[in-house]
Structure formats: structure tokens, C-alpha cells
Amino acid sequence: MIAVVDTTPISVILPTTGWNDACEEIADQLRPADELLVVCDTALEPVADRIDDHSDNVRLVVAGEPEGCSGKANAIAAGMEAAEHDRLVWTDDDFHHPPDWLEGLRTDYDRRGPTTEVPVFAGQDPLAMVLEPTHVVSGTLAVYFAGVPWGGSVVFERDDIDEAAFLEDLRRTVSDDGLLMEYTDVTAVKRTRSVEIGGSVRETLENQVRFTQIVRRHDPTAFVAQVVVGAVLALGCVLFPIPALALVTVAMAGVYAAFGIRRWTFLAAYPAVLAAIPLLLYGLVRRSFVWGGRRYRWHDKFDVTVESE
User: Fold this and answer.
1) Which residues have CB under 8 Å from 248's CB, separation 6+?
2) What number does CATH give the domain 10-308?
3) Residue ranges in 148-200 assigned as alpha helix (H)
4) Can you give the pTM of this predicted structure?
């Protein structure tokens, strides 16, 4: 039997400000017909000076300053409009792309259609480390079982969505992958990518606000479920501290093992459960958050004010 080789070209969209390891890793994986679109805000970004040093299938896209949407959403929209191919891959510059990364997504689409890999958010400051178990539950476990697209590594084709409506909505909201979830069904594969988050307590709190508001705006049912489950677990931890400590720690160790996460932070499961509800409330009452050097006021799903930080 002769194996059929997929020759469908791919456009990879990578928002970034500087030429970095991720750019090199992805460029090395391109087939001759593929393209890598490196998207930045302005032609003055450092990455703009490096594009000419690489092959013809690596192109610079200048998205311009965002107006009424996040910088990430604006970059993805500009990249999709500039892309030459129908099969699209979104990715980020904050994790390692191994040599088989792009081929894996190519194969995934052939087998499953729209597909996403799964992030593991690794905290880089004390608060982010303590909160890691909550991110493993909401950002790894939930993404895998609910088929939630992760914008760091997702593949789909233009025909899988209503592209015109999607791009219009993308340019008036914050979350690119939160919006994609509403436009197409995605299958998650059990391949994790480690993404460093935090670095300071302030940055971790800003991330908490953004994550909370993404779920609230794009999946209110899941948000209510998250609040209810979190409240029940927190109450159990308060009323029965010793059994709860053992139970949640062992359960979290099992989740870590299932996804191949080799970090000590599963031991923080108990304090993370206690902190979950206060942090959810904090994420709800904050009127703005900082992301990528900009301050966003997310009044409604499609009502965003962008301010300089």
C-alpha cells in the first residue's frame, strides 16, 4: 500500500517583537511551499531588521497599533489576512518548538480536523508557582477534555470558520483563542508545551484578571461551574483540612503524572484551592488589566478600550 503524503501548504502566524529561538525553530521546519508570517505592531520593532536574513517563505507582517482589541488579536487578524494559504497555524514565541512540531500539527489536521496542543503554564514567581495547580486544571486538563483551542499551538483551515465574521469580531475583542472556540470545534491532542508565565507578583495578578475575564466573556457556563466547584472544594478544605490536604495533593499529583508534568508544584494544590475563589473575585472586580505593555478595559465581549501602560 502506497502512503499518501499530504502536500497541503501551511501558513504559520507568529506574533512577536524580536527574532528569537521560536522564529528559528519554526523557520527550520517549513516545507518549500509553507510560509512563516512574523507579525509585529510597527516596522520599528527589532524583528523587522532580521527578516531579510532568512528564506523567501519567511515574511514580515506589520499589523499596526490595535484599536478596540488586544495586540494579540490584532496581530492574528493581520496575519490571517496576509496569509497565502488556507491551512493556518497560530503559535507563540514563549515555548520550545521541537523539530517535529509543525509536522505533528499537519498530521493532526489530516486525522482530526481543527486541532490544538495543550499548554502547561510554569510559574516564574512565588505566587505563580503556588497557583500552578489551578492553571493545570483550567489551562491543561480543561483544554484537553473540553477541546478548548490554545492560541499557542492550533491548526485549522479557513473553511472551518466563518472567516469574515471571525475577523470582524477578532478586531473588537481581547482573546483570540477564546473567540476561536465559538467559531469551530477543536480536538485537543495530549501533547503538552511548557509556557513560562509570571515573573513578578504583579504580572501574575494581571494574568489572573485576564484569564478570569476570558472565561467569563467566552464561556459563562464554564465560569459558573468553575465558581461552584471552587467554592465547594474551598469549603471542604476549610472544614476538613487534613483529609482535604491529602486528597487534593494526591489528586493533583495524578493529574500532573497523566500529562507528564514533572514539577514539585502539585504540592501547592491545597493553598491553591483556598486561593481560587478570592482570586476569581479579584479578577471580576478589577476594571482593567495589563498585557504585553498595554492596559485593557474589557467592558463587554466586543467592547474593549486600549490604553498605554
Assistant:
1) 233, 237, 269, 270, 273
2) 3.90.550
3) 163-170, 176-183
4) 0.94
